[in-house]
Each structure stands twice: as C-alpha cells, then as structure tokens.
Amino acid sequence: MADEMRVTFLGTSGAVPTTERNPSAVLLRREGERFLFDCGEGTQRQMMRFSTGFDVSHIFVTHLHGDHVLGIPGLLQTLDFNDRTDPLAIHAPHGTRSHLEQLIEATGERPTYPLRIHQVAPGDAVLDREAYTVEAFETDHRTKSVGYVLIEGDRKGRFDREKAEDELGIPPGPKYSKLHAGEPVEHDGRTIRPEEVVGPPRPGRRVVYTGDTSPTAATVEAADDADLLIHDATFGEDHRDRAGQTGHTTAKQAAELANRAGAKRLALTHISTRYAGRGGQLEDEARAVFEGERAFVAEDGRAIDVPFPHEG
Fold first, then answer.
1. Complete domains list, the chain, with CATH
2. Which GO MF terms does the UniProt record name (predicted)?
3. Which of 3, 38, 67, 241 is catalytic?
C-alpha cells in the first residue's frame, strides 16, 4: 500500500526472554520495504507467528549483546534454505564487524546470497534514499552502540483541484501534474504558477529506535518531533539507580526525554523480567509525565501504523 508505514514489535523483553516476551527485535515496513531493528534469539519464529514476511533488506543492529543478535545466524540460514537471492545488508556499530562475522561463521558457512556487513558511527547516513534516510545516533550502553532514526523527506503540498478547475478554469489533465510537480503552465494567455494551486510542503514521518541506552542528548536530537519514539524502558522508578548502573533507562526517564524531544508517541520496550505481569506500572509512570499523544508498553506481536503528521 502506498504511503504505508507499520511497526511490528517482535521482541520486547530485556536481556532474558519470558513466556510472553521475546528478546529485542522490531520490524518496520515502509511502502513494501522491510527493515529489522535488532534480531534477538527466536526472531524468525516471531516473524512467522506474526506474519510479517521474511523479505527483509536491511538489519540494523544497535549493539552486540546476545539478546540483540543471537537470532541473526538462524534467520540468515533460513533465508538461505528458502533460496533467497536478493542481497541482505547488516549495519552495526563501528568496530564490531569481526564479531558479527564470527557469530555467523560459527554456525556454518556464509549464506549463498550476497551478504554485506557495514560498520556505522553516530552521525552516519546509513541509508540515503530519495524519499528517506536512516541515520545512526549516539547512545550510551557501556559498549559500542548506536540508535537509528528513519527520516522521510517532505512531501509535495496538497493540490487545490477546486481552485484549479473552478477559479482558474484549468480542466483536469496533464497541466495538473505539471503544477503539482512544481512547473508553471500556460492557460488562457496567462502563466499559472504552482504556488497558486499547490500548498506548502508537508512533513514526512520520523521513527526512532534507541536500542539499550541511558538517556542521552543525542536521542533528544534524533527524536525531535518524532512520530514514534521506541525507547529503552528496562526499569521502573523503583530501580532507577540500577538503570543508571547498567546503561538503561526507566519508563519515567524515557517519557521525560520524549517530552524534551517533542515526540508524539512513545513505545516503551526492553522490559526487565522483574516486571512480568506488571507492565502497567511502567506505563503508568510514563503516562504520568508524558505530554505527547500516547505512551504505551510495547508487547510482542503488537503492530501500529505510523500516519503522516496531522493525519493520524
């Protein structure tokens, strides 16, 4: 579907899985493309369970702790068994390529399809497409780590068909396309400029995935006016000190950071097993301070659509 963007939470647990939560993995589908952010143990089964499809083109790894990467070897092998021929790119923090290669090769031969491992640093444009970019930003997790933000470019302004047809007398046809594309047209002896019938550019969407991290200024910058911020919320306020010691964030801290960034929606993830059955505590702590549209604890299998700004 054109303009579609959907986020599916495949794994929302902390370092240890539970009967309800898998280790970290998030799948983002944008207009037919599928991107996987982290790939914890069991991710491929979650992809089957929640019917996301396997045609992922890029895997974005935030860091190499096991709960974020142990699903990679199995997924790569399954893609090979399924006769994949399309290339697959894995992006991971600078200085981790050899560790990723060892992880993959320890379980067998490299896949027969093209596999590329790219090392990224904060500030890098990991993907740079005409319609969007994926950029890496700095996180703080006691190891080499990055977060990722997908940023769409501005869309064309709305075309005022009623004005074009009724006020200016331009019949539907090729001139509409030219005007919407930013080209002036001649009609009835005068030049019609695009700004007469086309509104101002409309902003695209912004989705942020932090992986594991303490609160950082870089995340605030990356999540500026974000439509969806997916943030580490491993602990509640009852373990705030523990969060700081281990390079994590509390639900309340994540909400406070989201406020500073002006994020519209906040998804809390990487939930510690100590909150099994008590996710409502974290949600309540975040909602008590969050000023955006909605804060929620992500759950495995939950899928949410990300609308364009002002169209949700």
1. 5-155+203-300 (3.60.15.10), 161-196 (no CATH)
2. 3'-tRNA processing endoribonuclease activity; identical protein binding; zinc ion binding
3. 67
